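Q: Hi! First time asking for a complex rather than a single chain. Here are the components, and I think there are three in total. Is that enough to go on?
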Amino acid sequence: MEALEIKNVTKKYNNFTLDNVSFSVPQGSIMGLIGENGAGKSTLIKAVLDLVNKDSGEVDIYGKKHDRKAKEIREDVGVVFDSLHYHENLNPSQISQISALTYKNWDEKAFTNYLSAFKLNEKSKIKTMSKGMKMKLGIAIALSHKAKLLILDEPTAGLDPVARDELLDIFLDFMQDETHSILISSHITTDLEKVADYITFIHEGKVLLSKPKDELLYDYRIVRCGESDFVELKEEEGAVWRKHDYQYEVLLPTGKMLESKYTSCEMERPTIDEIMLMYIKGERS
Amino acid sequence: MIFLEIIISSKTNQPIYEQITSQIKAKVMSGELKQGDPIPSMRSLAKSLHISVITVQRAYEDLQRDGFVETTVGRGSFISTGGTEFYQEERQRQAEEHLMQATEIARSSGISLEKLIELLTMFYEENE
Amino acid sequence: MKGLLKKDHILLRDYFFLFVMLDITISVMNGGMLLLSRRDTCVRDVGRLAVTSYILVTFVQSLINQTFNDDEKSGFLANVFTQPVTRSEYVKEKYILALQLTGIFAGIHTAGIIIGLILRTEPLTSDAMLLLAEIYILSLAGALSLSFNSISMFMKFGAGKKGIGVRVIVLLPMVITYLIWALNVTRDNAEFHIALPAIVTLLSFALSLFLFPMSFKWAERREV
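A: Yes, that's all I need. Here is the structure of the assembled complex.
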């Protein structure tokens, strides 16, 4: 049973459509969601959380269909958005009181521990907090009701490298339980390169690829070459290329196996950013 | 828990799971890790190394397949030397190949057997 | 849903106390007026009491509106629907909050009236008592219908400009009627006509009952 299964989800807006998106997040894994701004990542997350009305498709969380009525499932889901959606006059202590009445498994002690670990004062109103502090509070809340699935929409945006590193450690700590899973949408691809198990790439409302991260980082190759090599390279399986003024750039999904074939070319391991740029700006056959 | 050093780099071409397997294999071959020594669970190692769990999982699966690690449900993962013999044989075969090449070169250019043995001894002792 | 009530209780605290103070003041004034009213003018006095106290009818609606505005402005709706809370529970909580607030304000006001009546040396005329009862019922119906209609309108239109426009339209008949009534009753020796306010209030109340199930349907379809 997967932690999260997204099946053929479609959502139409006036000038954008999330089109037939399907992928799964296995239990015990971290799924990174990447894509340009406007590609559909946030819309997808809203569709998964049933905040918007899907035109078609189904979302299953730990095997149970997630719809409006299925509120029990949401006990197990912790959500962190890119901004903290709580009234600015509330303080963490009040949020704890409210959450204790909202969630069956609210863990007051865990919440207090996170607050002190994050150096957050439980009587400070939210409006006095910086962006980073609000983010940490959001994460503290999400981790304090015994959630099994975390859904994070740009949780590390606006945080300094030290804070980001601390957060990643907290996520890895969360993953010590092998039934726990995380879906994290992020522009900070270096974070995903470190900790993600799988990467799903959304482009213009569709799933472009959904693969193990190690495959993207270690099997794919990116090659810069001249015309003669290019002509052969572009015929390789799944090749994506860009023509620049003085060279061609080719992304090869099967690159690792092709290293012995193209000995004259410099094959490098791509970064996730480079892979994204190639797919977004490049051409394919 | 044994103090275990595993040093990985995300910048080299060698996949991280391979870095883990080769380091653990090397430690077993050198005797630093012995039969029955416990090693961290996959998840805690992933956490300590700040990497994804699936990467560590793949390393452990490879180690298990090659006979270097045994995992018992409920008790964790332990070093096994079951694979060392096979590994040793592999390495011996590689050494043999190199020695064969060296012998060919020596024979065809008039280098004597005594000289060859002298060189081999010097190299062997030099690297200790 | 208990969590939602707790949240609204916390957030409304300051405004709530303000309104309670106002309510106590009006209640004391009305109680005093009833206490001192002479038999020959008591019908007119009860009418005046209605005029001053009808303002209470808007208290509950103000507070409910405040919670909706806060919910939308802070993005809380995006939050609450990711929690183990259904859309129905969200709406239900607002209705319960409206009932709680109405109960408290009505209670405070009733206390003032009852004390005033008890302390009178001679009872009011039966006409006056009848009028008092009618006004009381209308006020309750008015308070509930205004706040219930507000809730329905928020569910359908949200807190933005469109929502404000619609809420004003729903509120308007009551306000206009009330103004006419107020102007009417403050003229000395004016006949006191309860018919018009009664009709408007009851229509408003009927509307709120009609919209009640629809508000739940609208909540289900609400996107965030």
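A: DSSP finds eight helices and no strands in chain C. Let me know if you'd like any chain examined more closely.
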